[in-house]
Protein 1
Amino acid sequence: MSLDDDIDIVWQANIENSKQICLSNDNLDKNLRLILTSIAEAYNNASHWTIRRQILSIMAKDVTFSTIRIFIPDLTSHRFNMARRHADFEGKGAVVDDTRTPIIRYDDYQLEHFIEFIVSPHICTDLPFGEKQLHLSTGETLLIPLTIRNLAPQRIIEQYYNYCKEYYGDTFRPLGQITLFSILNGCTASIRRSLQGLDSFSAEGSTSFDLLTSIVDGLSTLGIFC
């Protein structure tokens, strides 16, 4: 066998290999087109966007937007990106969770119960001076004495939940935390920052009791008071 014969054999072998590769690629392209066509058909038959996003997430990570647009012409880039994000965080083809948190209704007694708690002496202290005007929707004006809250809003809510759990158990359902924060924001009051200053009258009362205690101790030491 001459050198020219070897070259011809190698050339023919390369041609045959190229034909096999082209034939394999053609079959692969046909299968891919068939798969994309089936997915596009399922996408178009879906009646809700959540189901469409679930279907689209199967191929959104592996196929470009322009390629998918060939099979789904009305697909927008926003929905394509939503499907890719769904595939990243939930998984390809995962069911879309579209459950919504229901609106919780409350009864008047739940609201009254919390208001009674926050205006109790344990939470609020009335100032001996100053008033605030409360204008009602009926046009009536109420004069309310200024108050100081002895605790921060978060601590008030925590103590309220503990109070309800200890005294009522499962027989009473208090309002949600967000609702309670809204009530505290609506019922404005000063928050005690320290014992001195804003709550000075309480500080003076405490000082007076300390003075009386020291006087009694002194009299007891002298044997005058037992």
Protein 2
Amino acid sequence: MNSDNLSFSKDVADTIGVEAAVILKFIEDNKISLNSIEDIAEIILEEFSFMEEKEIVSSIEKIVSLGLIKIKSNKHHKVRLKLPHRSRSDKSNILDSDWEPSREAIEVLELGGIDLDFAYLKLKEFRIYWKEKKVQKDNWNSVFINYIRKEWVQFNSKNKGMPYTMADDWIPSSSALDILELSEIKKDTALSYLSEFILFWKDNGAALKTWNVKFVDFVKRKEIGSYNSKNEPGKFTKTFKERKSDQSWAEEIE
């Protein structure tokens, strides 16, 4: 199987997440048998050892729920993978102030098309946060890879990864429209809701990092007649000072 050189659309990554985009592309390129989530997850874990079990399973479940792939098995069970045994040298430890990613970790980032200068610029920020948190881990390279990949996608997005409010000229990405097509919602039908979507969110005043997922959900709910604005998240619940000091990005990569 080929996993050495994967390329995928930034719009896809913005819409479904980097991990899910990587897994989806790998499945498509290698024509993976879709017998069950467990089977797919075991293959992905073997090919992408830097990914965590929980991350792999949740990404596959997201892809399935969006209708991007169809699983043959209809069994609903909690997926438990047979993880490779860790060597005795893989001991948990607190991140040192002079910690450096391994050569293999750097190669993974480079193969993913990430500018290594960018990765090293982010290294100091990564060290400071985890050193102060004083958490013991035995997979610092995996944590670093996940952090850099997410930061890289945000850096290359139009808004540089920062939340932004809805604009009059906003349009959904082609990937978002493709996802709706898979749900048998035609492009013209989806775009017929665009003006209403923009108006609703401009009045709402919410600021999000990406609006594609929100648009997909909006259109799907409209099509089944169950859209309820009361359930829509997005408004700031913290002050500017609290948002500025927010470190929740790290919780996502633990």
Protein 3
Amino acid sequence: ELEKFKFVLDYKIKELKRQIEPRENEIADMRRQINEVDGELETFHKSNAELDLMIGSLRKQLDSMQRTIMRHRSRLSGQQSLLKTFQSELHEVVQSIQNPAELRQGVSELYKRHVHSNMSREEADSDIAREYARQKEYLERSIDALKRKLAKDSAMHRADNLRVMQENMSLIHEINDLRRQQRSMKQAITKDESGEVIEGDITRALRGPDRWASAAGGFGGA
């Protein structure tokens, strides 16, 4: 009986092992998945820490830039106010343009009020050179634009002149034809008055000098 009982127990143990083995495999798979998720979470934590550091650095930079912008705005506002004051004072000084003494005194006072540091000659020469270069570049661009416009206008004028010339030549030819017709008509009328031409010669004269000449030649031959 003990052997039989042992056999039954062994059989049940084997059955349980067969049932437990898939579960153990599932548990092993789940453990691997958990380990992978833990690794991903650790990576995310590191990334979040780095992002927090980056965000902190960017916030500091943003704060610094905002302070710089505020300083520049304040400086710009002061310069604009100073410029308006200078323009107003300059306008008052210009009112004395007809009085050299008052004008000189006003300019001197403006200089004392607004010029607080002497500009070196090198700086002045540098400013003059930059302004000269800027004006030169502007003039060169203007000259190039005018040259292109002149070339375009010249081409258009040449085309217009050629067209007008052709029209004039055509008109001249037409005028010459009309003059020849007029002379032929006068000759026809003169001959008609002297009784040397028939009535149809005037009609032929209106057709042109060539036709009138051929008609006159035929009439003379007859």
